[in-house]
Amino acid sequence: MKIKFCGAAHTVTGSQHLLEINGKKILLDCGMYQGKREEAYDINRHFLFDPKELHCVILSHAHIDHAGNLPMLSAEGFKGSIYTTPATRDLCSLMLLDSAFIQEKDIEFVNKRRAKKHQPAFKPLYTIEDAKTVLGLFKTVSYDNEFFIDGLGDEVKVKFYDAGHILGSAQIVLEFKNNGKPFKLGFTGDLGRKNLPILKDPEFMGDVDYLLCESTYGGLYHEPADQIEKGLLNTISEALKLNGKIIVPSFSVGRTQELIYEISKLNASGKLPKFQVYVDSPLSVNATAIFKLHPECFDEETYNLIASGVNVFGLDNVKYIKDVEESKKLNTSKQSCMIISASGMCEAGRILHHLANNIGNSKNTIMIIGYMAENTLGRQLIKASDKQNYKVKIYGEEYTVKAKIKVLNAFSAHSDSGETLEYLKKFDKNRLKKLFLVHGESPQPENLMTILKSNGFKNIEIPSKGQEFELV
């Protein structure tokens, strides 16, 4: 058996891990790399394997950095099945089409500027038709139900465990035989946290022989999840006093719903006066509808709130916007309000227009509630939080950051150093033959490795992109 790391190695985007078991090639995740536009475009168009040779894809969850390059995989000749949970499939039906639509529209906008400069035009990575085609390859299996991969008989058995990261997110365990010996390989996907809004806590996948573990916050610690309310209350109250706008770059799936959930609780409890909230993302609107279809993923607190009559996905002061003209009107509005928009890392979509129109006003606040990868505009905004007259580029134009930058990391849906260690301590160290740390930017995987070694873990690897390992 072999494993090849084709993405999310020394970075947090583009998750792709290629397994070869008894001659069959299985891909864990097919994420889109996000970063500098031209570099990302080139990386996403060129796989480190032949898509036509893949037997299947097993998908951990719907976030674009884990699922976003599936249409390109299909366009390059992949015809196998894509296994995932029902909620992930439903979310992908929105997110992949939305990703294609945004690419087409953003490329159209950028190419108008490039044409004026007599520069060659870009092409979208993939089209809406490509996204529609790949959705026909999905097959769904619920948590904790073992299944066999079509066409492989009983060679490989798979099981999904709740990762507690976003709706439908799964940890993956594959059980197989290598030279007659039984082995288990586990993949955490993105590992969630205890006590996050809406979702159940991550469940333990059981002991395995090989483990791929995310390391996004490998050496860092979040504020406790129960500090979400305090940070949100302080940030919103301060912005309302200044009569400013609060601009929130947010992932359409997971983070937007969690934020609305927390605001709804604050409104319902009387801790926060009602103020206008706009969710300006067609994908967020549709994703929220999908959340309502999957109560099997909700934790007990969410069930109890719903039972008590709280609309956890929005009160009457929350307006969901789909229409482009309504979105444009927000740019000229003088009303103090919150605008939640995508994309979460500020790399595409309507959030760019809201930032361009509001970043230069010191009364306004840009509230960061999610991870911002290296080389993204979101990461640049975090850097601006402690600097004067910091400049960023939006659609090629330079803007001085005068708005306040508030980072609320208690919202993070990724486990931090202590939470990851707590989870990994459940494994039998003597059985664990190899532990691979993926999905992390340096120095976080290295920091996590140091922590793990000091706690008795051995045989830890931080693979590089393209690196292969024999697993025996």
What does this structure look like?
The chain has about 475 residues and is α/β, with parallel strands linked by helices. The chain has two domains: about 1-220 and about 415-470, 4-Layer Sandwich (Metallo-beta-lactamase, Chain A), CATH 3.60.15.10; about 225-410, Rossmann fold (3-Layer(aba) Sandwich), CATH 3.40.50.10890. The protein contains 14 helices and 22 strands. The protein has a seven-stranded mixed sheet. Strands 7-8-9-10-11-20-21 form a seven-stranded mixed sheet, covered by helices on one side. A six-stranded parallel sheet has the order 14-13-15-12-16-19, sandwiched between helices. Helix 4 (about 85-115) packs antiparallel against helix 5 (about 130-135) and helix 4 runs antiparallel to helix 8.
β content, as a range? 15-25%
Categorize the overall geometry: globular
Number of helices, where a helix is a run of at least 4 consecutive DSSP H or I residues = 14
Unreliable stretches: none
Major β-sheet strand ordering:
6-5-4-3-2-1-22
Gap between N and C termini: 7 Å
CATH architecture of the largest domain: 4-Layer Sandwich
